[in-house]
Design goal:
heterodimer; A: alpha+beta; Glutaredoxin; 6 helices; elongated; B: alpha+beta; two-stranded antiparallel ribbon; 3 strands
């Protein structure tokens, strides 16, 4: 949470608002908010109704906590990013910002007619040999 | 190593491109946060967390 607070400006520049959600009581969440100086809201779901409806209630946890997850809701109400983080590590700030800057992954596109020719693939392999597998980031 | 899937969400609930379920909860100052109103203004990044992390 402290990470998100630190880089809130970058997120706001990308037209994104941050909201935390936990199953803690309001008093406890408010303490967390004050401790980390969070300026974004933290929602409280002590009844766990919403967390259960979203399917994010941890079935293995004795205290019925939520599974750590990072979700992006677009303006039209669809989910733009879904990351079930689990308890080991969280989706990093860098990954979130990268996703927001780059946009959604391109959908799979059907084969084009040039791809039916073997020399298209031969050219691809030659290009990989020449330039490597990964595209270089654009300068700047 | 066997990794157990800890998330019980059916596939169609939380998937990229699917409609987000309803969310209407009070925040720490008892102000009601309604996802449908908020997301119309700006994209919303929801962080489900436990403890402080």
């Amino acid at each position: 949470m402290a990470d998100y607070q630190r880089r809130l400006g970058e997120l706001e520049a990308l037209d994104v608002a941050v909201t935390g959600i936990s199953v803690d009581e309001a008093v406890r969440s408010e303490r967390v908010r004050r401790q980390f100086g969070l300026s974004f809201p933290i929602l409280c779901d002590p009844s766990r109704q919403t967390v259960r409806a979203w399917g994010l209630l941890d079935p293995d946890d004795r205290q019925d906590l939520a599974v750590p997850a990072t979700l992006l809701v677009e303006k039209d109400g669809t989910l733009g990013m879904v990351a079930f983080d689990g308890t080991r590590f969280r989706t990093t700030m860098d990954a979130v910002l990268e996703r927001l800057r780059v946009g959604p992954a391109a959908p799979w596109r059907p084969l084009r007619w040039v791809q039916a020719w073997p020399w298209y693939w031969a050219r691809c392999i030659a290009n990989v040999g020449r330039y490597g597998m990964k595209q270089k980031a654009p300068p700047g | 190593m066997v990794m157990k899937n800890r998330v019980m969400a059916p596939d169609h609930v939380l998937r990229v491109g699917a409609k987000a379920p309803a969310l209407r909860l009070p925040d720490t100052t008892s102000r009601i946060f309604d996802l449908d109103d908020e997301r119309a203004r700006r994209r919303q990044l929801l962080i489900f967390y436990r403890g402080h992390w």
